[in-house]
Structure formats: C-alpha cells, structure tokens
Design brief:
Layout lengths: L1 E4 L14 H13 L5 E4 L12 H18 L4 E4 L3 H10 L3 E4 L9 H8 L2 E5 L17 H18 L7 E4 L8 H9 L1 H5 L6 E2 L5 H7 L7 H13 L4 E2 L4 H15 L1
Parallel strand pairs: 1-2, 2-3, 3-4, 4-5, 5-6, 7-8
Helix pairs in contact: 1-2, 2-3, 3-4, 9-10
Bound molecules: 6-hydroxymethylpterin-diphosphate.
Length: 258
C-alpha cells in the first residue's frame, strides 16, 4: 500500500503533494514502483495534527482519486475517518476505506462501507491525533490492542460489513511509545491470530527516528527492517511511502520464508 498524502502537514511529506498535479504524478510513481493499492489521504493524523473540514478534505482527495482512477488499474484506498469523504471517494473511484478511527470517528461510516460492499481497514488508536502521544499507558499493549480490534471487528460485522471485508491494523505510532511500538512488532503474531489480514503501517515513523537519529526522509532502511519483521510475523499489507525499496525487501524476504 503506497502512501499518497494530499495534505500541507503530514509528518514526512506534508506539502509535497498538495497540488493535484503533483499528487497525481506521485500516484503514478507509486504504481510504477509496484504498489498494489494507493492510499489517498487529505487529513494528517500525525501527533498534534489539527482536524480538517469535510469541504477541505473533499477538495483535496476527490480530484486526485478521479484522475488516478481514470488512468490506472491500481486500486485506490481512501484514508479518512469521515463518512462523507469516504462516500465521495468511493464514487470517484476508490474501492477501499482506511479508517484510522476504526469506525469510531463518524457514526455513519460503517453504513457507508456496508452499503458500498468494499474492504475496510480498522486501525487501533489510543485517543485522538491531537493528544494521542501525551503519555500513552497500557498494562499490556498487545492484549489491549487485540481486544480493541476484536471488538471493532464485531461491531463492523454487526453493522452489516462482511467479515471477509475487514482488515486490522495495530496502529503503530497511534498513541504508543517507542517501547509500545516495539512490543507490538515483537508480538505481531498475536494480532494476526485474530484471524483477519493485518495491515502494518510503520513507514518513516517517529520511533524509527528515535532508534536511528534520522529525519523522516532518511528512515527508509529502518522502515524496510520493520516491514520485513512484520512479514515474518504474518502481516499481509504494508503501508509505506517508499514502495520500491520495501517491495524488493519483501519479495526477497518472502521468497526466503516460503
Ligand atoms: N498511519 C498514518 C496514516 N494512516 N493508516 C493505517 N492503516 N495504518 C497506519 O499506520 C497509518 C494510516 C500516518 O502516516 P502518514 O499518512 O504518513 O502521515 P500523516 O498522518 O501525517 O498524513
């Protein structure tokens, strides 16, 4: 899953793809690098990010999704927690909903996904982006994330979303310290054991900077390292900014693990 942030403030690529033409060009690049899905987002969820209005989010993502859908076969995902944005993105050509609030952010979201009969990714987040990194605490981070995802999966099914449509994501960096992220990666098999395919999103994140002392754009090697470990532990989808490097690493690691 290649990341396409049409935002002024995303943590690693904010402002780079805000103009529709550059966003479409980046979408083409991600597809040419071998992305199987392109995740278009119009609202940053970095720690401390300010919320974006529905109008602004629609203005950012809809033209980009329309343009990409018209010219490529690579499926498109909409990274949003707003039902109205998801609905418009699906009409514009997206076929996957990536909701970092796991259907919590908008009461109408589950209905939109159920009606459209598309796949959805439910992500664990503690709190909300503005405050999630203010001293997050868990007794057992893996147990709590697992319990949350199981509960959200049940809720999704209860709302009419087919179980086979649901992907689960432990939400690396969403209300977690360095140690919480490492524990989740170490024990990712326990999230995989829920029985739904797992999405893993660690690309360029802050904990990699803490471990390597590198700024966002120089965290590719760290990103590749954790994605290979996530593959070995059973993750199925890898959400990354650096598609070419990650894809090569996953191909080699995957062939070795067979
Ligand atoms: N992380 C981010 C955004 N969306 N979706 C899923 N499923 N999993 C993730 O880990 C995830 C996500 C944050 O990264 P990014 O999009 O690069 O930054 P920002 O939120 O600042 O736009």
């Amino acid at each position: 899953m290649g990341v396409l942030n049409v935002t002024p403030d995303s943590f690693s690529d904010g402002g780079l793809f805000l103009e529709p033409g550059t966003a479409v060009a980046q979408g083409r690049l991600l597809a040419s690098e071998g992305a199987d899905l392109i995740d278009v987002g119009g609202e940053s969820t970095r720690p401390g990010a300010d919320p974006v209005s529905v109008t602004d989010e629609l203005e950012r993502v809809v033209p980009v999704i329309e343009a990409l859908a018209a010219e490529m076969r690579t499926p498109l995902s909409i990274d949003t927690s707003k039902a109205e944005v998801a609905r418009a993105a699906l009409s514009a050509g997206a076929s996957f909903v990536n909701d970092v609030t796991a259907l919590h952010g908008d009461a109408a979201m589950a209905g939109v996904v159920a009606d459209a009969q598309v796949d959805v990714c439910l992500v664990h987040m503690k709190g909300e982006p503005r405050t999630m990194q203010d001293d997050p605490r868990y007794d057992d981070v893996v147990g709590e994330v697992r319990g949350f995802l199981e509960e959200r999966l049940e809720l999704a099914i209860g709302a009419g979303i087919a179980e086979q449509r649901v992907w689960l994501d432990p939400g690396i960096g969403f209300g977690k310290t360095l140690e919480h992220n490492l524990e989740l990666i170490r024990r990712l098999d326990e999230i995989v054991a829920i029985g739904r395919p797992v999405v893993f999103g660690a690309s360029r994140k802050r904990f990699l900077g803490r471990l390597t002392d590198r700024p966002e754009a120089e965290r590719v090697a760290g990103t590749v390292a954790v994605n290979v470990l996530a593959l070995e532990r059973g993750a199925t989808m890898f959400r990354v900014h650096d598609v070419a490097a990650t894809r090569d690493a996953l191909r080699v690691a995957g062939a070795t693990l067979k």
